[in-house]
Design brief:
This protein is an alpha+beta fold and about 220 residues long. It has 2 domains: about 130 residues, Glucose Permease (Domain IIA); about 70 residues, Muramoyl-pentapeptide Carboxypeptidase, domain 1 (Orthogonal Bundle), CATH 1.10.101.10. The protein is built from 4 helices and 14 strands. It is elongated and about 70 Å long.
Length: about 220
């Protein structure tokens, strides 16, 4: 699946990347992105992975880009920044964290646009060089960690080590012992904090919901 096929559901490309006759100026210009609409009628734009909002311009903020209301989201695992332009509404603000499938913005026709659509732009993180979004695929998640048992206080083993690594990676403290494979009180506390932040039951038990929030499979699903 292409990345743009995840950002917008059942997309149709109305204007590809490359030279075109600009629909407003009627002159030949380079189009640094894809213009997309949804054949499914879903006007939401979705996050492709865990990431964070780099920039938002809306309303009275001054912009000379012609993008209208727009938002940039960075995805470290992909090393990509995605621009969503011409939005009628942006759901996030600068610095917000996003999770895969979160709604980022809503399709509109703000700025230099002849009708509602998404202009999707793409660069590498920290780069000003535009990329063609049609060339980039979603990452293969077939190698996701597969949790085959419930984890709770008192459990030991490799599953707990994997949990400790994942919590540490996400900024949660698991205690001075670190990755020791023991589900003690510090791991319990970190797990509950993670669950609370993910708006799921904060019972300290790692089952299907917590596994999925960690980006894992649970019993092959």
């Amino acid at each position: 699946m292409k990345i743009y096929e995840y950002v917008i559901k059942k997309p149709s490309i109305t204007s590809p990347y490359g030279y075109r006759i600009h629909p407003i100026s009627k002159t030949k210009k380079f189009h640094y992105g894809l213009d997309l609409v949804s054949k499914a009628g879903d006007k939401n734009f979705y996050a492709i992975d865990d990431g964070y909002v780099q920039k938002v311009v809306t309303g009275q903020d001054k912009s000379t880009t012609g993008y209208g209301n727009y938002i940039w989201v960075r995805y470290p695992r992909y090393d990509l920044s995605l621009l969503h332009a011409h939005c009628s509404k942006v759901f996030l603000k600068k610095g917000d964290k996003v999770k895969k499938d979160d709604k980022v913005a809503y399709m509109g026709a703000t700025g230099a646009a002849t009708g509602p659509h998404l202009h999707l732009g793409m660069t590498r993180i920290g780069s000003n060089t535009w990329l063609n979004p049609a060339n980039y695929d979603m990452l293969d998640d077939s190698g996701k960690y597969n949790l085959t048992r419930l984890l709770k206080k008192g459990c030991k083993g490799n599953d707990v080590r994997e949990l400790q690594r994942e919590l540490i990676k996400r900024g949660y403290s698991v205690g001075k012992c670190g990755v020791d494979g023991i589900f003690g009180k510090d791991v319990l506390s970190a797990t509950k904090k993670f669950q609370k932040d993910q708006h799921i039951a904060s019972d300290g038990v790692v089952g299907v919901n917590t596994a999925h929030k960690l980006g894992w499979l649970y019993k092959n699903k």
